[in-house]
Amino acid sequence: MEVMIKFLIASALMWTVPIAVLYGFNHNFFPGSASLSQETVTLWSGILAVISVNMVIVLYIISAMKEPPSDKHEPDPRFLADAKASIKQQLGPTEGDPSSDRAKQE
């Protein structure tokens, strides 16, 4: 459940932070942005919005790396059985199988 909460928070931040940066630059909330031309404000607000999204992603990755590992991962037995059957089917008959000798002779 904790993982889902972190994911939802990171997702919400990836939407809100860049929009807040764009809004702040376009409405002169950041010091010095009022003296810039409109093209420069648009350029810098876009660059900082992209950087802010990347910072949110990096923070999410760091928080995921700090999580303690779960106990022991057990593979699903049904999945393993299906995978082994699929591999056997793709490999075909084994070397000890008399039908494989017949196939070699043909």
TrEMBL record:
Q: An example Gene Ontology cellular component term from the record?
A: endoplasmic reticulum membrane
Keyword field: Cytoplasmic vesicle, Endoplasmic reticulum, Membrane, Transmembrane, Transmembrane helix
What sections of the protein cross the membrane?
Answer: 7-25, 41-62
Name where it's found. Endoplasmic reticulum membrane; Endoplasmic reticulum-Golgi intermediate compartment membrane; Cytoplasmic vesicle, COPII-coated vesicle membrane
**One Pfam family named in its UniProt record:** VMA21
Q: What is its main location?
A: endoplasmic reticulum
The GO biological-process annotations, alphabetized, read as: vacuolar proton-transporting V-type ATPase complex assembly
**Superkingdom as given in the UniProt entry:** Eukaryota
In what way does this protein cross or attach to the membrane? Multi-pass membrane protein
Q: Which family does it belong to?
A: Belongs to the VMA21 family.
Question: What functional role does this protein have?
Answer: Required for the assembly of the V0 complex of the vacuolar ATPase (V-ATPase) in the endoplasmic reticulum.
Please report the name of this protein according to its UniProt entry. Vacuolar ATPase assembly integral membrane protein VMA21 homolog
